[in-house]
Amino acid sequence: MEKNKTLFKLGAIVLSVTIVVLSILLFIGVNPEQKQSGIPLIIGLILAAGFQSGIIFWLLSENTETESSVKKSENILSETPLINSDNPIMNTADVDYEFVELLKSKTNQAFEPAKVAEQLLITISKKYAVVQGMLFLLNSSDGKFYPKGNYAFYSNEAVKPFSIGEGITGQVAKNQETLKISNVPHGYITVLSGLGSSSPRFLLLVPFVHNGQTVAVAEFASFSEFPDSILKIFELINNEYAAAFEKLSFS
Question: For the chain, which residues make up each domain, given as ranges?
Answer without folding.
Answer: 2-72, 92-247
